[in-house]
Queue: 4 jobs
Job 1
Amino acid sequence: MEHAGSTERTRLRRLPEKASFDRAEVHRILDAGRVAHVAVVGDRSGRRPTDPGLDDPAQPYVVPVAYARDGDRVLFHGSTGSRLFRALAGGLPTCFTVTHLDGLVLARSAFESSMNYRSVMVLGRCSALTTAADKLAALEAVSEHLMPGRWADVRPPTAKELAATLVLALPLDECSAKVSTGGPTDDPADLDRPTWAGVIPIRTVLEPPVVAADLRVPAPVPGYIEDWK
Amino acid sequence: MEHAGSTERTRLRRLPEKASFDRAEVHRILDAGRVAHVAVVGDRSGRRPTDPGLDDPAQPYVVPVAYARDGDRVLFHGSTGSRLFRALAGGLPTCFTVTHLDGLVLARSAFESSMNYRSVMVLGRCSALTTAADKLAALEAVSEHLMPGRWADVRPPTAKELAATLVLALPLDECSAKVSTGGPTDDPADLDRPTWAGVIPIRTVLEPPVVAADLRVPAPVPGYIEDWK
């Protein structure tokens, strides 16, 4: 099995049977997602006056971001006006987590009741793309991941819009996947209970397109949308 | 509008029109979710030898957790064997974020293309519930949020199982909601483009139950599952 950057920090200590450092698995889980939860720690200016001083552990902030994987890195973007994105661009350590909830696992005991899911955690430091060409290519990659085929239809970013956009890349050097799948694994002593057990699968679906109220120029729903799922 | 613990830290600086501190809105978004992304910072033992020393900002870790809201707090649980959960139980500052992705927003420009979503961010410090009665009530609350009606059917936790479970409560003292909804808001100059614009709604659905392979005692699918959504 190929290892996608397993380190002491991403090697899971709990439920190790669920952990995976298989690079293809990490890529599949990332490619199946649209939103990641990204964390960065706050700076001193964000602390409450009532907090203890220097010894106080840093406050993390977690925000959702749209992203795409591009080879061995993930790309996402935010506003240059966001303090959090500027902190990420400055190279503060971050954690980038993507989770798919796949099902409710109904066991015979409360203790074994759980969820099926696939999750990837990436640790590292982002770098901000600097050239207009790099930024443009990254924004196209994110757009084409979320809305395949759309990029050719939209007005591309102006120089001013590009300048207002921080585009961040996070390498997939240090990452792991965690997957829980299948039915409940009950304690043998519970198997004789007259209780139904199984899984309720959960799925994310796209619904039919809703046209914008201000569509002035008649235009059909683009064909590429039909392939989205 | 009632304010659900707005502070300097949760007052959003970007896109303030999307921010809300309405307590009912925060509760609605939390109640519509199953999984939160929770962050805590690492400790020194987790740092790489190559990292700079004392000046190095802390490394955040973000993990998915199942949760329930109980009045003005959220409840979730983990293993006493998890270093991350022990750090949370120890009162390290945390951030608890819940996000619902509601749609892809197809604007005429790349810059205005976006996503509709609802998100809540809670800052604070967790406390671990200590008595068996409190822990049991919290586990029931989480179970009944995720699988309403199920608690009466399952074998309740034993004293040993309870002892192995860290049950955490995080008060909703400092939190905010961020909501993006509706159609694209294009630049007026882009409205004459012959480009379709609108929204592709995204929804999470539960699929029909899948029975466990090891169901020994014949039992019908419980009626309460039909109401889950």
Job 2
Amino acid sequence: MFSTSSFAAHSATTPLSPLQIARREVGPLDVQIDIEYCGICHTDLHVAKNDWGRSVYPIVPGHEIVGRVRAVGAKVKRFAPGQAVAVGCFVGSCGTCASCADHMEQYCLNGYTLTYGSPSADPGGYTQGGYSKSIVVGEHFVLSLPDGLDPAAAAPLLCAGITSYSPLRHWGIGPGMTVGVIGLGGLGHMGVKLAHAMGAKTVMITTSPAKAADAMRLGANEVLISTDEQAMLAMANQFDFLLNTILVPHDFNTYMGLLKVDGTMCIVGAIGPNAQLNTRPLILGRRNIAGSLVGGIKETQEMLNFCAAHEIVSDIELIPVEQINEAYVRMQNNDVKYRFVIDMATLA
Amino acid sequence: MFSTSSFAAHSATTPLSPLQIARREVGPLDVQIDIEYCGICHTDLHVAKNDWGRSVYPIVPGHEIVGRVRAVGAKVKRFAPGQAVAVGCFVGSCGTCASCADHMEQYCLNGYTLTYGSPSADPGGYTQGGYSKSIVVGEHFVLSLPDGLDPAAAAPLLCAGITSYSPLRHWGIGPGMTVGVIGLGGLGHMGVKLAHAMGAKTVMITTSPAKAADAMRLGANEVLISTDEQAMLAMANQFDFLLNTILVPHDFNTYMGLLKVDGTMCIVGAIGPNAQLNTRPLILGRRNIAGSLVGGIKETQEMLNFCAAHEIVSDIELIPVEQINEAYVRMQNNDVKYRFVIDMATLA
């Protein structure tokens, strides 16, 4: 198991000491997974640092989990030992509300159980995530990893991938449409690959001309520099959909004029208070601002199958677990192309 | 014609003098209308006061126009002298863009021509509105006023009515849905009547307990006091759609938690900068914020027919034209139930 002591520097007021996180026994509906790879998400850093004030230490982050089944409970039907599997951002939901009934566990009205940091009956009283040798997850929340996907590079599909895929699917992206992906980081680089694979004209929208070449390599048809007022005006009313992956609070009004009548900008990054909202572009073009949160289990499996069919994985930097703190610093400085993944074989 | 001198007090720096506004000759595609009634919209006041900095004086406001055809051009097919007709917020559009082709002239990509204050080939170089004895409008932009609608009380349907109707229709409001109408003014009272007539469970959402009885009379099934935190919490995740008719800048976050997953709040009042947008309720429930602007000509005709079928008109206070300035002051103080309409027979 992974020691959480390396996070102590982030939270001087919270006493942390090295410890082992025990996993629950394998119940009849559970799947025990040997974790091979775990992606590093910005959320991990926020939680490790207690940015949102809700972290309970000790905590093991990690919700981009890929591994192999070690053991299954007596009633598990879909999985068998040795099978390649994956786990994403949540490991429980009520199963009975309208959202769960509609395969949208991520919007469970009674509250889902996050892969780490949610109260649970697990040892220690909270779920613990994927920076670890193993995890025990209820069958419903385990995904099958399709053949042909590199397991390390597939790990970020479980959060960055599905967070981009779900809104693109929900808003019906396909051939004949123009999609803008705003921001080229972990989420944005998946957005470009997926929108392109879905057949849309895909435009990378970034403040950074230095990112243009890489955006084109990832599948963008064009690059639009959002600080270039003339270029932005020339693209007014051109977009069916904007996937906004910027992680920090910002001014949405910069982008709204790019949308066609009835177009939607979907926010998947900057959660919380942002800038003042100017309703003029909304009212004058029946434009929409929406948000979206990861995706349901059924949809996540569809996404993995789609990625296998289209040979899509994340661009990653594979690191040994000892480099986690360095990776956090680099991630904070946007110095990663485009996702760190921990090789769990390096965890003693 | 109406003297604009009474607006001089609103704009001391703009020299105004009493004058007559001439109308253009009746062209082959034009309909000349004797105006009987004209509703008073908040927009009229904003333009009269030059609140948006774009008013060009002299200006005749008024875009909730009801009257009878006096004369028609040689090529006019749908109208004949004596027929009851109506004119709404715009009287021209390009006719060729994607929006116009889709019967959404209000989102014309080349710019519609407003009923008053838009540059035009009309005498004086600008269109002039309905606080007037007559108007000349191209046939495409003239509505037929169905039998059975009181003409004075029907006038506000041309702006307040269609502004509420169009989003309710666009978002598919009907039986089995729960709709909240936020704010009980000219727009809101039409929203309640229309949502109720479309078969939705209709909830008036207001800060003002004093408005509850009137909201129920207008067709609301329930009243929700938005300053009552307990009541608001009890209604969380209950609404399919919110029609937000508040006219002044405000905080949308108050209302977003009321929406179900995939629900939409549509802004039809507060155009321009509002409060900071908190994206949390958007992301955590795939909720949407949208805007909507009046409605297209085809849809406006549908709305008039719907109102005739359901015996819906506006609640109005009919005033002689001499009381316009008093009406403006009362409207600014929200002291009208729910729309002033000018009886144009009182204009000398």
Job 3
Amino acid sequence: MPDFQAWTTRILKRTEGALEDLLPPASVAPERLHAAMRYAVLGGGKRVRPLLVHAAGEVCGASPDALDAAACAVELIHAYSLVHDDMPCMDDDVLRRGKPTIHIQFDEATALLAGDALQTLAFHSLSRPALLADSAVQAAMIHDLALAAGSRGMAGGQAIDLASVGRQLDRSELEFMHIHKTGALIRCAVMLGARCGAPLDRDEIDRLDRFGKLVGLLFQVVDDILDADGDTATLGKTAGKDAAHDKPTYVSLLGLARSRAYAGELLDEAVGEIAPLPASGRLADLARFVVHRRF
Amino acid sequence: MPDFQAWTTRILKRTEGALEDLLPPASVAPERLHAAMRYAVLGGGKRVRPLLVHAAGEVCGASPDALDAAACAVELIHAYSLVHDDMPCMDDDVLRRGKPTIHIQFDEATALLAGDALQTLAFHSLSRPALLADSAVQAAMIHDLALAAGSRGMAGGQAIDLASVGRQLDRSELEFMHIHKTGALIRCAVMLGARCGAPLDRDEIDRLDRFGKLVGLLFQVVDDILDADGDTATLGKTAGKDAAHDKPTYVSLLGLARSRAYAGELLDEAVGEIAPLPASGRLADLARFVVHRRF
């Protein structure tokens, strides 16, 4: 997929530029906080959520500028969640994207505040004046992001995850956790991109929503496989930490082979959902990329 | 001021009801997170920011429903900042509003996530569909709140505060810190209320903005006086903790008598700013209430 690779490179570059512009310079007071925010966000990460925003934007012919703002918003929510997730009272991890985590590189208080301010910056990005011609759609997008990120979405998923350590979850409980913890924001990335352009009809929106939900699960299954299978150097984070923390994963529940088969099924279903939509090839490529990124 | 007291009681009651409705029930999963969020927000707090939102709304004849959503948004940002501020890596406090702080009553991870989710819920509240007839104004209000809460506002002020522990600040540095840490959100409360009704002209907006800035400072000066002067029982939080943490305050810089005189000057100036505005009596009463609440 040479075209997909060129597209990915282009979107990653513009996302990096948009994040760079949005994050206050480290020379502006409070300097240490701004340095920590930039350290947490720039120069790393797969940027799967921004890629999903832009790919979904192709379906509705969205303006690239609006997509940048939405892409930054979801990526900043994701980045803040990683900063807080790595803190000693949560996962207590020292390595992320091959670099020391924020509370190691800076200090715990700065990590806490940097995470807080990154979340705020996400809403700052999405509430930019004149983002879209229709401000009511913009307000609805902000509402969607808040729902996806909050206690009934991502933050709630982290709480469920915490409560599950050391417990034996069944498959539906594990799925419930992941639908919140990673699924809600990935699904939201697709829906935000899909709202930045010409209005879609109900069936199109439903298909994209189901696609987002499936890709969210797919992403987690693949993550569990990589965590069980990979090593710290390729992952850029501490490998095998789920098992070490006695956390339930798809691999611990289904085994490696059945987890791989499940990933394949989710991929087929996701791609099938969007097949009838115009200009959905990029989304399908992206779903395949999520699966094949490292195995 | 019997009328002011009746008004305050009425606004506090409706704010409590609006917060109650907005916060997910503790019976909804994740239960522990929702219980912590409710514990952090309900049944306590002076609700100065919601009162400011509603008082500013009187100047522009705003709809009470829109004011409730804005009032909840600023109060939730305030509440989240207290939860995180009390954590061991920040102020490490065990008492707030006369009750154990969240990380004591629950645990540190739950405090972290509850604070995170309360911030998200603030933006959820302010992005409610059809909050105002003009969605562009709504988006602008969300943008204002994000600016006031983020690294160039409240979160930035907390970072400056952290960096100042043990250092001797001069008056302008102290003011710079407070303008961010508490001032930005108080000012934002006034401006959010002022945008929920009929559009105001430039001079009116500027007067309200200066009023908000002055009341923000006033609030901090009074807080420093109470911290130095009060006892733990009346404050509902650990008294004298600023001195114990070697934190710079107006009292440590100016002494108690000059701090009181400064509060008086700020009050006169604030009330003078809004005197020409119609229906601004409530805001003036509220500024007086901030000063006289406990001394």
Job 4
Amino acid sequence: MMPGPREFNREAIPLRRELHRHAERGWEEFWTSAFVAQRLGSLGFNVLLGDEVIDVDSAMGRPPLEVLQEARERAAEWGAPADLLDRMGLLTGVVGILDTGRPGPVTAFRFDLDAVEVWESRDPDHRPFSEGFAALDDGVAHACGHDGHTAMGLVLARWISQNLDALRGTFKFLFQPAEEGVRGGRSMVQRGHLDRVDVLWGLHLGVGFPSGTVGAGCSDFLCTTKMDVLFRGVAAHAGGAPHEGRNALLAAASAVLGLHSIAPHGGGASRINVGMLRAGTGRNVIPDRAELALETRGASEEINAYMESRAMEVMRGAAVSQGVDLEVTLAGGAVNAESHPELMDLVMKKAVHLEGVERVEREGRISGSEDVSWMMRRVHDMGGRACYIILGADTAAGHHNGRFDFDEDVLGVGVALLASLALELAGSGR
Amino acid sequence: MMPGPREFNREAIPLRRELHRHAERGWEEFWTSAFVAQRLGSLGFNVLLGDEVIDVDSAMGRPPLEVLQEARERAAEWGAPADLLDRMGLLTGVVGILDTGRPGPVTAFRFDLDAVEVWESRDPDHRPFSEGFAALDDGVAHACGHDGHTAMGLVLARWISQNLDALRGTFKFLFQPAEEGVRGGRSMVQRGHLDRVDVLWGLHLGVGFPSGTVGAGCSDFLCTTKMDVLFRGVAAHAGGAPHEGRNALLAAASAVLGLHSIAPHGGGASRINVGMLRAGTGRNVIPDRAELALETRGASEEINAYMESRAMEVMRGAAVSQGVDLEVTLAGGAVNAESHPELMDLVMKKAVHLEGVERVEREGRISGSEDVSWMMRRVHDMGGRACYIILGADTAAGHHNGRFDFDEDVLGVGVALLASLALELAGSGR
Amino acid sequence: MMPGPREFNREAIPLRRELHRHAERGWEEFWTSAFVAQRLGSLGFNVLLGDEVIDVDSAMGRPPLEVLQEARERAAEWGAPADLLDRMGLLTGVVGILDTGRPGPVTAFRFDLDAVEVWESRDPDHRPFSEGFAALDDGVAHACGHDGHTAMGLVLARWISQNLDALRGTFKFLFQPAEEGVRGGRSMVQRGHLDRVDVLWGLHLGVGFPSGTVGAGCSDFLCTTKMDVLFRGVAAHAGGAPHEGRNALLAAASAVLGLHSIAPHGGGASRINVGMLRAGTGRNVIPDRAELALETRGASEEINAYMESRAMEVMRGAAVSQGVDLEVTLAGGAVNAESHPELMDLVMKKAVHLEGVERVEREGRISGSEDVSWMMRRVHDMGGRACYIILGADTAAGHHNGRFDFDEDVLGVGVALLASLALELAGSGR
Amino acid sequence: MMPGPREFNREAIPLRRELHRHAERGWEEFWTSAFVAQRLGSLGFNVLLGDEVIDVDSAMGRPPLEVLQEARERAAEWGAPADLLDRMGLLTGVVGILDTGRPGPVTAFRFDLDAVEVWESRDPDHRPFSEGFAALDDGVAHACGHDGHTAMGLVLARWISQNLDALRGTFKFLFQPAEEGVRGGRSMVQRGHLDRVDVLWGLHLGVGFPSGTVGAGCSDFLCTTKMDVLFRGVAAHAGGAPHEGRNALLAAASAVLGLHSIAPHGGGASRINVGMLRAGTGRNVIPDRAELALETRGASEEINAYMESRAMEVMRGAAVSQGVDLEVTLAGGAVNAESHPELMDLVMKKAVHLEGVERVEREGRISGSEDVSWMMRRVHDMGGRACYIILGADTAAGHHNGRFDFDEDVLGVGVALLASLALELAGSGR
């Protein structure tokens, strides 16, 4: 018989707190990956790491190599085993595979590993601080609940590995790096990990759903593209020889106005934002460098593609206007995707009977972008079924806020729900 | 013996008034050209017309052919002989050549034929109106004194033709079309008319110098380039399908800001102005057309070239940004040029003795652009000497004002001055 | 018994052609108003004209008085009786009221009178041209079908006046000027004409619905505001004294970029368009005048109000930036409005039995703005019911196109439908 | 008899190197001020410090107080005596006064104390590095020669104090903080130190003049204003609620375009530069903060005032457009000033006889801004005479470059020249 949420919580909560303390930024989750890999390995999983997990050419928004190097060194200091770090190289993320030995479907679960660039509260009211599991490093914190996701994944993996007789087919655990900024998902798809998956489950806790509720499926992911932009001009003395300069700041300012004035799409909502601009050095020097961080969004892939291509035109034009060079780097991206109605029905049916669940809504709403969308789309394209679940959880503050914390009791609910779904679709009948 | 200014005036003033009544815009001076050609022909000059005068590929800012056609028809209605109009085709301007038969220098005089797009005053105080020689047509008037210039040219030509014994070498009269907007000068240079000129005289009346003064040479011509610009996009319904449009007005607005923010040149004064913008039709339609009229200026040719090339970059960039097409037409241009110091000295010497002249300044100032500059430069490049004279004249209002009129008594002074200069440098000694 | 569509057409089609020939722009419908007033008067209606119809302070986008004067003189030339023109003054539009003498509801019908600023095709394929009823004047044509609307109104008025026994309550015919540009509707509401209306019917032919179809109600009117904008600066010579100018064109260009970059509203679709810009005169003069025509739209009144107030901020800022004056004139506007579901049901029920109607859709879509919305809203606010019907009609070209023409046979369908609706809700039972 | 340049150099060079090692930014020259004060005190000067030197309300571009605090602590670590630091408070700069006891003029000398924000080269070819006197701190270096100026000031002070018999009147040594960015000069004028000065000497080494040359006077100081600008808006989620934001980055971008498109002044050269822009944080957040650093310049005070007031208009307009707040802080400024012709003549006469001087030009050119201009203007306004000398010096790289170094042998020339000038105008005749 399957244990209830409370039993799962005894295991999940300490894991979550350990993960919370070791918060790491996207693409820098070396300690976290090692922690996950060690556990999966000891449970008998076939563990993939480094470029077995990630297609490096599809990885978006990775920090400079020296930053990755530093992050790896910090993980080593925190006790990550050298052999696992060696296997990773400079790529984080883990895939664990366990075969029941019995014919059956490939069932995959996706969890995300990364924390957020935010300063965690040191207020006595903030439980991670008062109970001693606040983030070790400054400026990075698990303020979006991915620590909870990963903890659930580890408990679920443990339960599956100990109940193999009751199951059939193959189980695949995808621990994704760099979900924040929608940077990592696509690279696991490109590495082939979603190609023969029959059923994919993803989930998020919180996002406005209170404890006791479940969103049985979610389909409102926004398409988005994230770009880092550099205009490179020529410096000159602004008083003596202004005509010798090529003004990167003027190019950037002109681009900003142009980007924000891209015509909306008649077919549905579109968005653009230049969230950051850094340009110039000295007051009396024509600026020779300007950096922008921007994003486009669209209700559909067509609309986002329209925004993206118009943005490129605007920036190319701004560069031509000022005679400066333009470099655009893809820093992230996600597509839209739909949860499969059959799986949504199944979640409705199963969730309603779980202890701790009081209300189940058929359409969860995330109202944003999630790069699980690449995975869901791939599974559907290959004939499988995918579903994204929202696990209600009371939170102490909004996501990405330094005071964010969540009701840990929901972790057991999540594990129990995923376990029951696995049994339903890949049970051996024993 | 040479007649004095008063005698010349008897002939010059009626001519000026006849020309004033028949004011014609630049490139449309069909009646005026015929009037000049007829007189030169009757004086024994070899008269060139049409493409004998103008290199059509170098002619800038010509109006559409149907406008030229209409102007020619109006000239015919005003009595211009059909055979002369036939010789002109659609090109105005006249060159008249008279050879003394004696070896000697080629002496050239340049006068301009065109009127200005301005509504002539119908006020009783405005002499051309009260004395019945105001412009026949609405919206065009001799408000810059070119009627006076042409009248002086015709009187001088008459005097030379009747005093050939006292002269040597060849005399060349250049009656240039389209000086306003600096459009016609270059095309006469390109046709070769300045190639073997030993001495070139040009002049302007007024420009801030009162009657009784003369500016003996002028060298402060500003380099300038005039451009007509068209952005061509795609119209679309602004409510229903804004993304289908290509917004020519946005391109133009962005270009205007970019043009006005071109960095000044460290080497000297530079200017740019977008003087006119017309874009769009309906309030609810994405504008698919935007027209601009602009000009650049520079203290030197290098500076003007810098402004011009930066302006092209800015406009190309604006077009790229909005995905629209760009057409730039050269609508006019002038270079800088210097009056030859020897000729300036000579004007100083001669002018001071003329009846009606009280003060001579060695450096006249025009503080603007004049396309005689192309001619002066060509003459100097080929080893000749050129000089531009300012003939002081009291005026009733500023140049290009609908109430402009000038003290006609200065016309005789101008003819007498030019005649005495001709005698000095190309006199036969008889 | 009520006649069928064919019989109504015998009367409606000649009327429509007479109206088509005498196409008049919005606020200039003097001939058309006189034509309508004459007929209503002869049918026994109490006819209101001039400021009995229009609240002049609420009239938006009226042309200058001299234009109205000219239009009135043209109407007189076309035969409009002097006494009716006298009653109008300079305000067009007609209200006709007929009381059955029996207690009952106030039933109102609204029709629009104005034509569009477009050149009517002179192609032999264009029926109004080949059959001799093309617009008498150039540059204005009934290219939106309002001639058909008015013709239906006149036939319906005739039928009602001759079937008073079968009816009860009061009938009110509202012939509105200046629907194009959504300029006239509000002024009839402000004059009080909708204050005690129990049932209001409005309609439009065509708009994408083919002949044989009917849209039983319509609720997707977009809120919109139309503005005419003038920036007034100071001219200066662009070469000599650029610092003395106040550049109205720069202000306008900056405003255009700012307006198009207003952030979209998170609550639903928003739009803005600067459809027209005219600035400057001479190439070498700092432009001292710039005129813009723009519109905002929003899915709700709140969203449109957001766009409008942000647009005002942007323009005020642009004026401050360049030290120029700003004048903004309200040139038109419409709100959103919903068709009453009971009336929609009634149209469904009645339309389906009419000869010539094959398909009825419950929700017509106009996907634009219509200033009948002010009237519908007023009726609903006062406790009445309003409904907007789309009368399908094949068209030869899109609305507002110079080749627009429509299937005249639908006119009789429209009259029959409105007559049957009147009988249903205001029948005397006889 | 006065010693020659070589003898002065024995003293000046070690002093310059000591100062070079202890490079301090503008307003942070605590160690340098203490070093100067100690020496002047020991020579018998009356030494003023802190608010005896600086009018704090007129001090421009001071860093935050915590930065000043840190700088003062560093100076203490470097050995600056506590009592002197106490007297300074948080204000740097030194005035030293020495009275000969004999009636005579007030003779003032001005030297500047501050270093530049630049990383000093660690290349073996860079003498300060190879000979061990490179700047102790990173990111700040004496790359403009002010270390040389201060060293000359100290040697001159020593010579004067030991030759009081040969002199008359009073000597005033002004050691100014924060010349870089033209921030400190005005505050010493406002403190009254220039009010009764009969003769003021200032100087700069290098600036394009090679060793062996002297510029006898300089008058081409550009007027300039430095501004720090902050736009403060409201953050919002760029996807979900963009209409709730107030976009400070858009305001800044619009301001940048507006600032760079301010019309040039017809009366002479004008300049503007936005040298730095920092805005926004997250990619998906509407930026609520944008900081700009800018400067205006003008050939005359009127022109700079025009640029400054137009810049304010443009920024205010940009703030209005986006509904954001604007804060502008004056960060620096200088005026124009002329060297007195009599003093220029005197420098010509004296310099030409100095050992090591080969060529003297009457008009040195600095082609930039220097806030000694406030002092020179004050002296002239009060009836005194002021002169700025350029002391030629070969340099290893341009001013403000990390590899800047200069020919130290010119220091003795400078001291000798100033000493001989003092003797000439304030000699006792003994």
